[in-house]
Amino acid sequence: MYDERDLAKAGSAGAALLGRGAMVKVGILAAFALIIALFALAPAAKTNTVAAGCSIEVPGSGTDQPETDGPLHAQQIEYVKMFDRIAVENNLPGRATLVAIMTALQESQIRNLPGGHADSVGIFQQRPSTGWGSKQQLQTEEYATRAFFGVGPQDPPPPGLIDIDGWYTMPLTEAAQAVQVSAFPDAYARHEGTALKLAAEAGINLDRPGDPYGGRPSRPGATTGPSGAPILNPCTGPGDTGPIDGTWPEESCSVVPDPSNGRGCVTPRTAAWIMQARTALRGQGMSCWDAHAWNPTSDHPRGRACDLMTGRDARKNAAEKAKGDRIAAWTLSTARQTGVRYVIWYGRIWSASRGTWEKYSGGGVYDANDPNGGHFNHVHVSMY
């Protein structure tokens, strides 16, 4: 979907695309042996490392099939709005609301239960015996929610979300588990999709910035921008990385067939990236090689580009937007090791030479307002 004219018009200072090498056909077994070898050697191409905590959430095992209509669903929406209202009151980012929704879905299906395992009660199934409060307090929705976040005027001793150092860089399920200390620490992950849908129905902006520690006096070194608003870790979205320097040797389109779709070819570097992406983004569909006869300067026929579909127009669907953000964030967090040259997503373009996102114009080739042309329904990744 992309060629060098787009990058030039976006203001990139990067080097010109490397020339296309000669096509070398190899057998399928040899190709995959090459992929595995390159995957093992990929980190050696660069010495820079990615900051700890840059991880991508993937769905957990099991299913999540809550009621989608009726009294329970209406009640869930009202509770979700309450979670967000309390988060906003305490200047917490939208990610805090998402963690709360996922936690409540796992613990109670967002119901104010009178009982549960042992002496657990309420929306978050907090226990009086472990210091969360009295049974009466924990069945008061506002108290239980503030206790979960750790922002209540009667804040109980167990650590709430803002008391967990670095919670906003953790995978969502780990952040929930840090508060809940459940016997099933990975169970929260499977509720992410439903949580995103509920938040969208409730009109909640989960991309909202904020202070991850809610003004907590002992908060660990949060940085702030010119406005004083905290700058969240870029792992919570497709954030800027700063320029990524380095030289990547030229490679030919020699891995046959493309392991993403069984057609054409890709470079060894792209093949290695596909292997990593399949591990990190389990279940994510992607397609790399394409003839692109209508746009021969594209990276796709060179075996240097992949498209990862998010579904519908993300401008109209919060879940699709969040999905694309997670794909882009992971791609940028590993770009130093994998040789990613540029990424296009949601009307913006990021290049390794620049290290920042800029508005995507379509480069005179695509309509930047179109869901496909503006990359509102898929993430485009091009390799050196």
From TrEMBL:
Give TM segment ranges.
26-45
**Composition-biased stretches (Low complexity):** 234-243
Pfam families xref list = VldE
Q: Which domain of life is it from?
A: Bacteria
Q: Does the keyword Membrane apply?
A: yes
Query: Does Membrane appear among the keywords?
Result: yes
Q: Which residues form the ARB-07466-like C-terminal domain?
A: 263-369
Q: Which UniProt keywords apply?
A: Membrane, Transmembrane, Transmembrane helix
Disordered: annotated span: 207-243
Under which name does UniProt file this protein? ARB-07466-like C-terminal domain-containing protein
Q: Can you name the source organism?
A: Kribbella sancticallisti
